[in-house]
Automatic annotation (TrEMBL):
Signal peptide start and end residues: none
Gene Ontology terms: cellular component: cytosol; nucleus; TTT Hsp90 cochaperone complex
Positions with biased composition (Basic and acidic residues): 209-222
Record's protein name: Uncharacterized protein
InterPro entries the UniProt entry points to: ARM-type_fold, Tti2
Family note: Belongs to the TTI2 family.
Region named Disordered: 202-222
PANTHER family according to UniProt: TELO2-INTERACTING PROTEIN 2
Superkingdom of the organism of origin: Eukaryota
Amino acid sequence: MSALTSAIAAIDSLHTIPPLTADDEWRSIGASLPDHLTLERITEDMHERAGLVALLAFLKHTHSTSTRQQPEHAAASAQKLCEHVARIIAPCPDSEAGQVSDDDYPEYEQVAHRSRDLAPYGLAVLRILCNDYSINLDVDTLLTVISFTAPGLTDPWTTQGACHVARELLSQQLLHRLDQSDLLESILKEYLRPAFAKSRPQAVTASGRKAEFPQDDDPHRGLADDTKEVKPWKYEDHRAIAVFHWVVLTADSDVLKRLWPLFIPVLLALLDDGTTRIRRRGLLILDSFLEKFPSNILRDTGLASVFRDAVFPTLHFLPSITPEEDSILLLEAAYTALLRLARKTESKAGKVEPHGTSPKGKLLDKLLREGVFSSYFHVKEHVKIVAVLLMQTAKILDEMQIYAVKHLKDLIPMHSEVLSNPFAALAPATLSAAIQGLQAVIANCWPRLSIPAYQDELIKALVVCYMTVHDERDQLGERFAELDVELVKTASMLTVAAKGTAGKGAEDLADKAALLVSKEPLLAGLFQ
């Protein structure tokens, strides 16, 4: 039995493994390991979690005592051990452990669970080895560390503790690299470009620029190309997306300006993928990318239309074809990215264009017509998705401002239908979104709200909603007060908007409100 095997057997006999912060307990375990255990022998005989635990205990013990003497070439063994530990904890199917065959790949969740189980111990080992032996990690090991640093724990293989250790370790390693932009360029060229080479969409050329004459996509191509040969980043190396996300978050505008062609194929491949988690991650990354990407390059290269065409299909990922929860995740991310794109497509400085013909104006109009209104027609019975659409509508209107008046004929009926629904109190989140959406309509389109037809429909919607909310006061519980305040605020905004037209609208609204209050005194609380 080898030294490490003996140590592993001792670890396996433990009922529980102590927390990583319990240094004294770890040193106690380390003290019980065989005296002849060395880094060289550990490197030769590594094994899964028990091996990582034994290694961690060994390192914590040797870190606090000088009884174990390491040979002069221990640093080389430590470097080799770092690479081996990184391979073990990486969120990749483990061919060495016999998990992968040509026709049988483990599920993504299975790989993520295994990596999540091993990562806390492996990352702790890497941190100790790097500190004790002043190791500069090789790029592949660094990629594994990066894959555990995603913000918001968006990857299922990382935890809060693992993320903290990985970020700390990464920060230390980056201090040893004189030019971080060189590392980013190396990752983009030598790691990400080969991984995504076969899954590049037809909309861009191999150099990442807009294709002037793109080939028509085969509708069946997506299924045929969804393989490990075409998408190794999806099936063979789950680090790739997390690493790309880190590159986008880390790169400054100068790096993006110089290396942008290397980003585009990866972004479009993610946006084109049919798996919800990947497409959504691509949308989140695109939003971060656009935030820093120079507007002039976006405009002059034609990439704005490429991104628009890549994201827009996601707006139609709706039930019943797409599960409701998946649809919500995708819609929120897609609208956020498209709104960011609209803000970045302002006309050139000094160039005055009518709103309807400007790139930003056309995109916002398209978002409402082909996005919100089209989707609402199909998903009225899915109240959670309706809430998302209403919240995004408010954001779009705030971007359009007065130019949103052209859409009043669709905006007012959509909001009125939700507010007037007798069962609206059953979905308070959707009701709240409709009220806030109507506030955005009033705030941006107030000059046209003196039109009697619009005014009557809005008053009716507010009155019906106010009565419903008060009738269902007990059912709404804590949400009642919030909804009541927002409804009163909306009615007040409508009154102010009517006064702002400097016409007969204000008097008409006051007369209508007084008549309603005379018939139902409860409405005095609405029209204060």
